[in-house]
Amino acid sequence: MSNEVIIQNAVKRYGDFTALSDVSLKIAKGEFFTLLGPSGCGKTTLLRMIAGFNSIEGGDFFFGDKRINDVPAHKRDIGMVFQNYAIFPHMTVEENVAYGLKARKTPRAEIDKRVKEALELVQILPLAKRKPSELSGGQQQRVALARAFVIEPSVLLMDEPLSNLDAKLRVQMRSIIKKLQRRLGITTIYVTHDQEEALAISDRIAVMKEGHVMQIGTPRDIYAKPANPFVAGFIGVSNFLPCQVEKVKDGRAMVNVSGMEGQKVKIDVNRDYAGKATLSARPEQLFFAKEGMPGVVTFTTFLGDFIEYEVQLESGQSITINEYTKDTTEVHEAGEKVHIHFDPTRVSLFDENGEVLSR
Fold first, then answer.
1. pLDDT in tens, 163-177
2. Average pLDDT of the residues in 175-199
3. Cα gap 189→184, rounded to integer Å
């Protein structure tokens, strides 16, 4: 039976250094929830606190209605998949997968049945008698996955499980992990620094920076409506354009974007504001137009389904534009003078303090 996971005001300190500061999360039963951020942001620290491997200096952790702060790790009913697989080299594949069930004194017939089912789910049943040394990295990771979920934990924790695999295998494995999680319905908390991986597999994502949660949302919300410039810059690629909000009337701001003098843009905003601001636009949110920000194409890269352009604006700033090949037959070559514009309903606008203005 899966559990919801509730974290209230979590704090973790190492001497004078605060690794986590007042972090609160509510993860629904059966949800695939990802902790995403750069190295050192506190995501693995938080996962290890949930697992019971790290002490808790402040806050409360719950699995369902049960507070687990003082519950030993081996009694928390969790499955864990590590970055380095951590499977036993002296045991066969099936012995590795059976290990947790034996520790729980599960009857032999039940162990055999559940191990076979687990190995079938991760598609390595024919490898049951092999030792880890006879397996590829992807096969070893499947063993680790099977061992974690065969015990039917209430919460599955995964710490950068794909980081040691090559790019193609990572894409294959993340698909397997997501399908397994949906099929089994286990509440899963997943740690990664890979933005694309997080977007591909998560129901919701918590973006972290320096021990703080910067934003929580669905992959679509995090990408399309970032809460601050850090999230906009960390998730995917963003072009940050300086601008000035002149006034707000009826919930709509008059914005003067640098390089577009005399071409004020109207953007829906969430409050009154006037002053310096920053406009954030994804490469696919920019397009070539007859008027807009003047610039010169400095680099063109054909990438199959889209063409990536680097354009230097008159201000000297370089921006990136993606144009999908299905939408155009024209290619802009290096040295060509162009004008760049955007759809005001799709970009993000932040005030001088980095707080989101756009709706």
1. 888 888 889 889 989
2. 94
3. 14
